[in-house]
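Section 4.2 – Deliverable D4.2 (structural model, holo form)

The reporting period included a commitment to supply a predicted holo structure for the target in complex with adenosine-3',5'-cyclic-monophosphate. Inputs used:
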Amino acid sequence: MSNIEQTLSIIKPDAVERNLENEIKEMFKINGFTILKEKKIQIEKSEAEKFYKVHETKPFYNDLCTYLSSGPIVVMILQKENAVKRNRELMGATNPKDADEGTIRKKYGISIDKNSVHGSDSIDNAKIEIDFFFKDWKFLI
Ligand code: CMP
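Output (structure tokens):
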């Protein structure tokens, strides 16, 4: 049975700054993801704080929000069968040091903070995160 999902992906400031946007998008496409929507934006720190609210008690929260708002990012809605899980596999471990060969973070990530991409970690969070950046977007399924 087909299980087409949508997930939110962000190409983070470190990757946009190094002109990796197209290479990373290509990795999504080669791996069967369709980019349904995308936009390049820069967000305020207050918006980053809302986006990463789930991490607000973590010691790295402040730096994380400063970082996400430090430069342009590309936010995308990706679609594929089991997109949430498949995207997390393609991204690799949060810390690029621990990421498997062939993953985006292994290839492009610099550190746990500058790990080049973000992806929703569950279907529920994918809905919340897509709604955060693409308010007018209606879920297809
Ligand atoms: P991301 O998938 O965007 O979700 C939260 C981010 O916090 C994570 O990627 C990392 O870039 C960042 N981060 C910084 N320190 C840590 C840590 N110790 N554990 C998990 N995430 C961290």
